[in-house]
Specification:
Elements (H helix, E strand, L loop, with lengths): L2 H4 L3 H23 L5 H27 L11 H18 L3 H22 L9 H21 L2
Helix pairs in contact: 2-3, 2-6, 3-4, 3-5, 4-5, 5-6
Length: about 150
Amino acid sequence: MTGLHRRIPVSALVLGWLGVLPFAGLCGAALTGAVLPKPQALDALAVYAMIILAFMGGVRWGLAMISDPQRPSPDGTALTVSVVPALIGCACWFLPRPIGLVGLMVGFAGLLAYDLLTGQSFHAPAWYPRLRIQLTAAVLTFLGVAAACQ
């Protein structure tokens, strides 16, 4: 595989990091209370994290739907894994905020670990794991800092 196919496309890199900005802003708001009261900032952070975690599961669903001549229908395990992040996010909403934020961290880290373990078997581009590692590390940092500020 050439370096061109392994390089993260600029659009994916920029859009991915733009998606991290609300994590940073809401974490900062929770720490300072300057823009929103701390409880509201933590709730907003939890909601945004739930949305993004569900979105990441949706990426898995989309990749599972890619046609494979060797398999006439999508892999049931892949489809199941794609739904779990949304379920984790929803469950974390009902937990007390510091524990819920830690649960969301577990969801992000777990999905990343699964993605890295399954490698290219789920049809992702060669650059996708490198992008996921960067973005997930940032998300885990902001969620962890916000959870610790309780």
